[in-house]
Fold this protein.
Amino acid sequence: MKISFSPEDEQFREEIAIWLKENLTGEFEQLRHRGGPGDEHMFPEERKVWEQHMAKAGWTCPGWPEEYGGRGLSINQQVIFHEEYARVGGPGHMGHIGEGLAGPTIIAFGTEEQKKRFLPGIVDGTEYWCQGYSEPSAGSDLANVKTKAVLDESSGQWVINGQKVWTSLAHESDWCFVIARTEPGSQGHKGLSFLLVPMDQPNIEVRPIEQLTGTSEFNEVFFDEAVTDAANIVGKPGDGWKIAMALLGFERGVSTLGQQMHFQNELDEVIKEAQKSGAAEDPAIRQRIADAWMGLRIMRYNSLRMLSGPQDGSLQKEAMIYKLYWATWHSDLGKLAMDVRGADSEVLPEGPYELDRLQSMYLFTRSDTIYGGTNEIQRNIIAERALGMPKEPKGR
């Protein structure tokens, strides 16, 4: 699919570009290009204020239907919004998990009561979400979830026990959507449920995981008799796998175009560094920069193909290759950044050690091929679900 923009779309582009230029100033100026992957620990409270500022102007959740607080933007306009936001250096969204994952899932599968309870807080930027999927023994293999939940009829609550890991921004979140096993003795895809769990309770412990970058936006989350109301289940008991897969489809929505603009900003910084250091005179470096530029264009075109299909969370074949492609591309960009900088980039003069942006980016990109589904798992998904090849034998 090749998206062409109408005069009305271009008028919308001008509208959002002007608003961002006029508003991302003053107290918000320091937030430009901050809070993205590897930098999510920066300015969390200030970024929440920024999102509430955007909400007052109606710029949060712009693709949601108007009846749920969004603007009901067309796909073209959503593409424009995310591209312009990233182009101007809009800070990483503190509420992106709520806006891009929890919200669309509740809209698609939730009850009217759940929509009334949870969607306004996401739109207003007053309630923040994290994702309770991965576990120590169920990282990319979500069907191996061990966290359990039992419905206590006397209290009218689900009682949850287990552990989640790599939970982004759990320490900043008000709610967590949790995949838990609610059918005793069930295995694999069966017996899972999708629960909405409040984080502010004594039976939930959040422990930071320090990364190579020295930051801790990821966490371990322990549920020890944690509770949530019986009504806070999305769908029916046992629907968890179906809903979890739909949510991963929403993850590959129009926000991917904003992610690519963030990548473009990083590539631009690498190019400037290459010109500054003289690395741009090296034909091999120039070729790698050209390859990175072409890879980003391919990523964009595949995303536009991906967006031409249904917006119900179902995964097209084009969507199944997206994570593998961008993770590999971004990991290679991290290596290119360090090679452009030269050997000095690997040494810091003295403690306390503070990484610059390209060093931090390089270290964080080491995780790209792991989180969100490892490259190995992504290749299995492509082989089995996109190409229809025989499934990998179990127990190997």
